[in-house]
Design brief:
Number of helices: 15
Distance between the termini: 45 Å
CATH architecture: Orthogonal Bundle
GO molecular function, one term: hydrolase activity
Order of helices and strands: HHHHHHHEHEEHHHHEHHH
Number of domains: 1
Oligomer: single chain
Structural class: mainly alpha
Subcellular location: Cell membrane
Shape: globular
Strand order of the largest sheet: 1-4
InterPro entries: ABC_transp_permease
Strand content: under 5%
EC number: 3.6.3.17
Organism: Mesorhizobium metallidurans STM 2683
Length: 333
């Protein structure tokens, strides 16, 4: 006769087997797609485009794809910190433009490329700081503040540049744009470093805990002694800092400071955050998810270009994916 001890392991294993969801149930669970939308989407695009256009999987194209995604990855990280507090930064693309213009003007004034890069990053960080102070001290909604700074910074950039692009000839920027270390170009390594630092800050520091607590329930976080206003200001400053890094990479890539806002940078940064499973209501965030989301969006545009699909249809495809991801997020656990 079996003792209860002998029967217990069999009973436990059976219970565990019954509680484990089947593959079909997992695929039909909307929360699974909410958590893994960017990964599944990226893998799906690689398979589809790899079959439709084998050049997509060539080493040269994959390296070009990663270089193109580096700027968006950095911007999506900055946007992630803001969205984690239940906010949004609409001034991101304008900050990139301002950083590029300041970089070009300071370099043209003979201050040197390193001073120009530092001042560009400081200027965009100041924009983020301004956003955070206006939102917290002024008690103004983030949408209104960042929409206002979007317009104001655009005007400031046009005034400073006179509406004319500034050529930036620099050996350092040329090497940054075209040089590589190992299998990846320098911009890709910058993006990887940004992902690692942001991941550590979000998950392994007190600031990260306070950030998610502030986004989850600001009143409760304040009751626990968290200085929520400082956390929000820091989040917007980080977003501005990331915009500055992106402006340096952008100038290095195109060789000039253009006084034009690339609105796709803003829209795609938000799209990458949504695809990465970051809650638009705050309190839930990741860094790797938005980074993969940025890769997915870049792969989508790259694949459609290789398939000779008109550029007019590309924003339509991106918009459809983002709306679908937002619908799936309703079921996020």
């Amino acid at each position: 006769m079996n003792t209860p001890e002998q029967n217990a392991p069999v009973h436990t294993a059976g219970a565990a087997e019954e509680s484990r969801p089947s593959l079909s149930a997992l695929l039909l669970d909307p929360s699974f797609w909410a958590d893994w939308a960017s990964v599944v989407g990226l893998v799906g695009l690689v398979i589809v485009f790899g079959i439709a256009q084998p050049v997509f999987l060539s080493i040269a194209n994959l390296q070009a794809l990663l270089l193109a995604a580096a700027i968006l990855v950095v911007l999506s990280i900055g946007q992630t910190f803001v969205v984690a507090t239940a906010g949004i930064d609409l001034s991101l693309a304008a900050a990139v433009m301002l950083g590029a213009i300041i970089l070009g003007l300071v370099n043209a004034a003979g201050w040197g490329i390193f001073a120009a890069c530092v001042l560009a990053v400081l200027a965009t960080s100041a924009v983020g700081l301004l956003n955070g102070v206006l939102i917290t001290a002024g008690k103004i909604p983030d949408f209104v503040v960042t929409l206002g700074t979007l317009s104001g910074i655009t005007g400031l950039g046009l005034i400073l540049s006179g509406g004319e692009p500034t050529m930036v000839g620099s050996t350092f920027l040329l090497k940054l744009a075209s040089g590589s270390f190992g299998p990846f170009g320098y911009p890709v390594w910058v993006a990887i470093a940004a992902v690692i630092v942001a991941h550590v800050a979000l998950y392994h520091t007190r600031f990260g805990v306070h950030l998610l607590a502030t986004g989850g329930q600001v009143e409760s976080a304040g009751a626990l002694g968290i200085r929520t206003n400082r956390v929000k200001i820091a989040a917007y400053t980080i977003s501005g800092f990331c915009a500055g890094i992106a402006s340096v990479l952008l100038v290095a890539r195109i060789g000039s400071a253009e006084p034009l806002i690339n609105t796709s940078l803003l829209l795609n940064s938000v799209a990458a955050v949504v695809l990465g499973g970051v809650s638009l209501f705050g309190g839930r965030a990741s860094i790797l998810g938005p980074a993969i989301g940025a890769l997915m969006l870049t792969a989508l545009v790259n694949g459609l270009t290789l398939l000779s699909v008109s550029a007019f249809y590309q924003p339509l495809a991106v918009g459809a994916i983002v709306v679908l991801a937002a619908l799936i997020m309703r079921y996020q656990k």
